[in-house]
Amino acid sequence: MTDRARRFPVGLTIAVAISLAILVGLGSWQLKRLAWKEGLLARVAALQAAPAKPGIAAMEQMSVGADLDFARVQLECPGLASAPYVQLYSVRDGQPGARLVSACHIAGGRYRSILVDRGFVDETVSARPRVNVSDRTPITITGVLRVPEPGNFVSPPNDVAANRWYVRDVPAMAKALSADAPAPLVLMAETSSNPEWKALDPAPLPAEISNRHLEYALTWFGLAASLVGVYVAMLWRRRKT
Predict the structure, then answer these.
(1) Do 13 and 127 have their domain in common?
(2) Between helices 213-240 and 10-49, what is the axis angle to 10°?
(3) Distance (Å, rounded) from C-alpha 100 to C-alpha 197?
(4) How many domains does the chain fold into?
(5) Would 167 be classed as within a structural domain?
(6) DSSP string of 169-230?
(7) Which distant-in-sequence residues (6+ apart) come within 8 Å of 113 by Cβ?
(8) Where are the alpha helices (DSSP H) in the chain?
(9) Cα–Cα 20 to 30 A to 14, which of 25, 29, 52, 170?
C-alpha cells in the first residue's frame, strides 16, 4: 500500500458521502414540497375567486368522496345565530382567543350535519352570543370547506367538560353539540352568523399561506455544495503535503 493510499481518508469520505446524500435528499424533498405548495396555492386562489356552490349540492358531492377542501359553499343553517357552540383555542394576528364552532343541521343525505366555525373572539371579550335551542331562524352562511387539521404531540388534550378545545375533533365536537352524522369537513364562515355582534369575526383562511420551500431547498443544496468544497479542499491539501 502506497503512502498516498494510506493517507486517503476512507472513514471521512464515507461520512461525507452519507452527509451529502442526506443534504441532497432534503433539498429534493423541499422541491417536491414546492411543487405541492404551488399547486395548493393555485387551487386556493381559484376556489376563493369562484362563486360559492350551493351547500346541499356540495354535501352530496362529499358523500361520494369528492375533494372539497377549500371549496366555497353557501348553506342555510336553522338557528345558527343562537346555536350551542364549543370553543376552540386559537391565535389570530398574535392575539389568543377562541373560535366558536356550532353544528348546522341538514335535512336528508348521508350527512345530517356539518360543523360551522362561526369566527374568532379575542380573549379580552368575555361575552358570548346568547344560546336559544328553540330558535330556528334560518341563517345563510357563505364559507370555505376545510379538512380539520390534526393535532400533534404538543397539542393539549381537549377538555370537553370545561368546553376548552385545542384540536378540531369532528366526531367529539359533534357529540358535544348533539349533532348526528357529521360531515368530515368543517365550514369556515366568511359571512357573519351574528352581524349585530361585531366581536365575533369570521376568519376562514390566513391572509397568506407560507411558501418558502424554494428557499429551504437552496439552503440544503448550498450546504451540500459547501460540504463538497470543504472535502475537495481537504484532499487537495493532503495531496500537497
Answers:
(1) no
(2) 160
(3) 13
(4) 2
(5) yes
(6) -HHHHHHHTT-SSEEEEEEEESS-S-TT-TTSB---S-S-----HHHHHHHHHHHHHHHHHH
(7) 103, 104, 105, 106, 174, 179, 180, 181, 182, 183
(8) 3-7, 10-49, 55-63, 170-176, 213-240
(9) 29
Predicted confidence (pLDDT) at residue 7 exceeds the cutoff of 90: no
205 found inside a domain: no
Question: Backbone dihedral region of 227: left (phi > 0), alpha (psi from -120 to 50 degrees) or beta?
Answer: alpha
Q: What average pLDDT does range 21-33 have in this prediction?
A: 95
Residue 239, CB half-sphere, CA atoms under 13 Å: how many? Answer: 6
> Which residues span the domain enclosing 162?
52-189
Sheet holding 86-92, edge to edge: 53-54, 72-78, 138-146, 182-189, 113-122, 95-105, 86-92
pLDDT the model gives residue 1:
47
Q: Does residue 143 belong to any structural domain of this protein?
A: yes
The residue among 17, 12, 186 whose CA lies nearest residue 86 is 186
Burial class (CB in 10 A: 0-12, 13-18, 19+), 98: buried
**Separation of alpha carbons 38 and 211, rounded Å:** 8
Cell numbers representing residue 101 in the block: 364552532
Q: Which three cell numbers stand for residue 199?
A: 366581536
For cell 330556528, the residue is: 136
Look up cell 387551487; give the residue: 43
**Is the residue at 73 inside a domain?**
yes
Q: If DSSP codes are grouped into helix, strand and coil, which group holds residue 4? A: helix
- Residues in contact with 205: Cβ distance below 8 Å, sequence separation at least 6, in sequence order: 44, 48, 144, 188
